[in-house]
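Action item from last meeting closed. Structure (217 res):
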């Protein structure tokens, strides 16, 4: 089923929208099936779990960090991932930049937006984004490549739309601002139950787990 699900989704996604397979808690065997079906971008939530999987599956596909990244895992994350989608603090930016300098590499980062302005959730508040981006200018190893949002947990999928809309507005604001961010082009939003809405609201990357692997673990 994994193969069929990946192929169906790849065929259905409009041009300009990439599939990220959210593979937390899935086995390397399941992930390999998705790779064989044509998936090329994978998202992991936990650094240690990702480390084990990347050791087995290698770097022929892209690995994105999509979970909250603790500062004591920044060093390892900088080694492992191609993109950190959950950059949410300047302290984390500083640690990633430092580690990338030591590794002589650059890393893509998406800024996570706390689009629901929820105190218990991580992410940069919408009204702080432009200052946050300005403050990142000192970190030359970070390529600011997009925005990511989860949005609040909602009961009906349609209720998430305003949060996607807001994040898209921020995305356009950054693109149109005078700040020079050559690689700023990704808008990562939408999960299995909300990705069609996210695409309508301008997502360039959707993060799908259950609709590929099924909801049973
Ligand atoms: C698990 C996860 C997803 C995928 O969620 P599904 O409902 O399984 O599609 C997307 N984004 C993040 C950050 C996740 O942790």
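Sequence:
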């Amino acid at each position: 089923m994994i193969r069929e699900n990946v192929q169906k989704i790849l065929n259905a996604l409009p041009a300009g929208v990439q599939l990220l397979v959210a593979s937390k808690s899935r086995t390397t065997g399941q992930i390999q099936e998705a790779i064989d079906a044509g998936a090329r971008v994978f998202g992991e939530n936990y650094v240690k779990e990702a480390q084990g999987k990347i050791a087995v599956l290698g770097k022929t596909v892209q690995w994105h960090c999509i979970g909250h990244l603790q500062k004591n895992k920044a060093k390892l994350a900088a080694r492992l991932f191609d993109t950190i989608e959950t950059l949410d603090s300047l302290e984390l930016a500083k640690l990633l930049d430092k580690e990338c300098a030591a590794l002589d590499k650059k890393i893509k980062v998406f800024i996570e937006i706390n689009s629901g302005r929820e105190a218990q959730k991580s992410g940069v508040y919408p009204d702080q984004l432009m200052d946050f981006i300005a403050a990142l200018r000192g970190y030359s190893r970070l390529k600011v490549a997009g925005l990511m949002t989860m949005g609040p947990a909602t009961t009906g999928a349609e209720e998430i739309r305003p949060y996607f809309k807001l994040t898209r507005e921020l995305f356009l604001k950054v693109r149109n601002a005078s700040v020079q961010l050559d690689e700023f082009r990704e808008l990562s939003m939408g999960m299995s139950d909300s990705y069609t809405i996210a695409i309508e609201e301008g997502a360039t990357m959707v993060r799908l787990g259950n609709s590929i692997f099924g909801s049973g673990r």
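Note appended to the action item: Residues 161-176 form the longest helix (16 residues).
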